[in-house]
Amino acid sequence: MSLFSCEGLSLSEPPRFPLSIVLDSMPDAVMILDGDIRVALANSSARELFAAEGRRLAGTHLQELLPDICFLGGGPLRRCASVGDEGMRACELPEGRYCRACEISLSADGDSPRVLELRMQRVALDPSGAHICVLRDVTERRMAERRLRSKQRELERILDAMPAGVWMLDRAGNCCFENLAARRIWAFASAQADVAGRRAWRVEKDGQRRPVTTLADLCGDGAAAPDRGAMEMLDIFGPGGNYKSLLISEKRLSPGDDGHDGDDDSNHLVVIQDMTDHTRLAKAARLQDELSLSVFNSSTIGICVSDTDGCILVANPTLCELVGYSEDELLRLTVRDITWPSDWTNACEARVDALLSGDQTRTAYEQRYRHRDGHPVWVVVDASLLSDPATGPTYVLGQVIPIDARKQAEGELAVRDAALDIAQRTARFGYWLWSPTERTFTCSGEAARLLGVASQTGGSPWALAGNVHCDDRGLLYSALNCLLRDEMMLDLDFRIAAPDGSVARVIHMRGETAQSDGAAPLYVGTITDITERKRVEEELRASQRDLRQLQICQEQRLEDERRRIALELHDDLGELLTGLKMGLSAIRLRHAGNPALLGEINGIKGLVDDSFRVVRRVASNIRPPALNVGLIPAVQWLGQEFESRNGIRCQVNIDLDEQIRLPDEIATPVFRVIQETLTNTARHASASCVSIQLSIDGGQLLVDVRDNGIGFNPEAPGCNKHYGLFSQRERISALGGTLRIVSAPARGTTTMFSVPLEEES
Questions:
Q1: Of 289-293, 405-409, 586-590, 625-629, the least confident
Q2: Percent of the chain whose predicted confidence (pLDDT) is above 90
Q3: Fold exhibited by the domain 158-282
Q4: Sign, Cα dihedral of 556, 560, 563, 566
């Protein structure tokens, strides 16, 4: 029979055993209530329970003993002080059944209130409606439960503060508890979702990944679990597709752990650590180690690590190949053993001492290593100190770069530089480089000597102005500004002044842009000493002036001689021919009756007339009489004579004042050039029309002779070497003028020249 079972009990029948004995043996407070819910019988535990109240139990209504209980409709109610009578909850008492447990509070003066668990049951077969009321003191149990809940909340706060995730799983794999870290790591509430669909894999010992579909899979085989407490890796992909690597540590918590047997209620404690960053860093460190080893072995630079005594500890294959030793052989040597003996000097030891003493953390120098075959190998050594702040210098890292090819190239370059310097000094020629952006101006040694500067490197070419002749500085400034604006290339002659102000030398400076297209501009150029050339040019110009002056004198003498010959032909020979003609006329009169003689006389007279015409033509060709009158009448006569003799229409346009009379030393050469031009037209042009234009503009006599002939190419080889054209240019040049010929095949020819006139002219 159950502890609270009273089946078959009736107050109208005497019990087989004394009821008080039975009730007193019960540990709980038990009271028999009549139909009015008054105490009919109470055991000793009930009497002890209410003894502190000093009340009499028999006949006492239950509500008097327990004020928190009230009855509505015949059923007991628990009064809830927080909500009043409206919040009272009815508790039906079906016959023969227990009501739900109802906890009430029993207060005693001076003592803490006690918590009682009340159960009531109607007595079966009792028409009076008797009840059994059982009261159990659960004060200590409730206090223990509160302490347990407090400890549990404290434990939850501690677990929530942990960085590692913690799960408590039951045997079915359902999550009973998880801390905040577990929710953050798993990215969803574990109690609300399975691992399935979350793309999680367990990393096995052999490196294979096995899918994890439920939280129970995290605990392995729940019954066996021989490796409880072992750690393993789990890879998951969260809802956002982010990868995580987790370290899982699982332990089965069974009732046997606290002294009881049985596995039915066993739980699993799962600790999760997010190892994503650690795994990533480990992979990065492993990759960096592999990469460092790969770089060390495959580097084209020799690398070695030595201790502070110079003993080589590690060397890569490049260094072994560079000095001709195997790695094992090299590890038995020191740095001094592979250094060329004459290169291990006091300076070298001083560099090593400075490095080891901490005065320097890095040093670089050039020296020779000794190859195993005995020949030297030029290298650049970059040594740096690897030290521990606690223990001081530990190792020396050396990076060795072979520079044999560079040294050979430097030697060849030095020879070429020496040859170039000799060639520049011999040719008196140098070069320069100018970078306005970097503010550097560099020139060769010969260029610096020619420019009179002490250094081959300066800030800008503007600094050269101090050595330039004061009259040429403006030209230099203007040319450099034009070069900077990319308006034109630099091509300038200027003079270098001596300390006494005289001209030391004449320099030709030439330069242009070497690079552009968005890059920093760089200008390059040359410097040439043209002092001797200028002197020769000046002498040549003086010689040419003397030759032209001589030519003018010769032309003047020739014209004087032509004038004399023309006058003699006209005067002397003309006088003789006139006398001959007069004598023939007298003979003709005396012998008028002799027809035969008259015929001979008439024939001789015709010859005399022809001689008169020949004499006049020859005299005119030698020196036209019109030229004695002036250039204008002479050109007009020349046009008429050219048209009548060659049958080519000649148009003469004179835009000059007829009162203007040019000096004979100008008029004669101009006339001769026009005469030579018309002669060339008649011989070669096949023209039908010629025009001659004379005008004055700006103190210049302008002459323009055009024809509509077949033309020619003035640039063709040999055209400028013809004596006719050469003599024309020389005549005009002697007068200080210029002559230009414009022509093209089938386009005719135009000869234009100008001669400066003096104000007196």
A1: 625-629
A2: 13
A3: Beta-Lactamase (3.30.450)
A4: negative
Q: What is the DSSP letter of 101?
A: P
Domain 299-402: assigned CATH number: 3.30.450.20
Give the neighbor-by-neighbor strand order of the sheet with 69-72. Answer: 69-72, 75-80, 84-90
pLDDT per position as a tens digit, 7-57: 444 545 555 557 778 888 888 889 888 888 888 888 888 888 887 455 578
Provide the CA 581 distance to its chain's centre, in angstroms.
107
Strand partners, 249: 231, 271
Determine the 3-state secondary structure of 390 from DSSP.
Answer: coil
Residue that has been written with the tokens 């050396």 in this structure: 398
Domains 19-137 and 627-756 share a fold: no
Q: Tell me how far apart the alpha carbons of residues 133 and 380 are, in angstroms, rounded to a whole number.
A: 105
Phi, psi of 134 (to 5 degrees): -115, 130
Q: What is the pLDDT of residue 21?
A: 83
For the domain made up of 408-529, give the CATH fold: Beta-Lactamase (3.30.450)
The single-letter DSSP state of residue 311 is B
With CA atoms as reference, report the closest residue to 552 among 752, 730, 673.
730
**Contacting residues for 330 by C-beta, under 8 A, at least 6 apart:** 304, 312, 315, 319, 320, 323, 338
Round to whole Å and give the CA distance between 31 and 47. 9
pLDDT, tens only, 491-537:
888 888 887 777 778 888 888 887 656 667 788 888 888 888 888 88
Say if CB 608 and CB 577 are below 8 A apart. Answer: yes
Q: What was the pLDDT predicted at 228?
A: 47
User: Residue 533: left if φ>0, alpha if ψ -120 to 50, beta else—which one?
Assistant: alpha
> Could you tell me if 724 and 680 are in contact, meaning their C-beta atoms sit under 8 angstroms apart?
yes
Is the Cβ–Cβ distance between 174 and 215 less than 8 Å? yes
Residues 155, 157, 159, CA angle at the centre, nearest 5°? 70
Domain chopping of the chain, boundaries = 19-137, 158-282, 299-402, 408-529, 627-756
Structure tokens at 239: 């809802």
Q: What is the pLDDT of residue 184?
A: 80
For helices 664-680 and 631-646, angle between their N-to-C axes, nearest 10 degrees: 20
Picking from 632, 705, 651, 706, the residue whose alpha carbon sits closest to that of residue 674 is: 705
Q: Sorting pLDDT into bands at 50, 70 and 90, what band is 609?
A: confident
What does 668-680 look like in DSSP terms, one character per residue? Answer: HHHHHHHHHHHHH
Give the Cβ contact number of residue 533 at 10 Å. Answer: 14
Give the C-alpha separation, 212 to 603, whole Å. Answer: 150
pLDDT band at 728 (very low <50, low <70, confident <90, very high): confident
Parallel, antiparallel or unpaired: strands 689-697 and 649-655:
parallel
The Cα 274–Cα 182 span in angstroms is 9
∠ CA 636-641-647, rounded to 5° = 120
Residue 101 has pLDDT above 80, yes or no: no
Nearest to 635 by CA among 686, 677, 696: 677
Write down the CATH number for the domain with range 19-137.
Answer: 3.30.450.20
611 token code pair: 């001689």
Per-residue pLDDT tens for 65-94?
887 775 544 444 443 333 333 333 334 444
Higher pLDDT, 462 or 155: 155
Strands 689-697 and 700-707: antiparallel
CATH superfamily of 627-756: Histidine kinase-like ATPase, C-terminal domain (3.30.565.10)
Dist. CA 676–CA 102, nearest whole Å: 151
Name the E strands within 26-74: 29-33, 39-42, 69-72
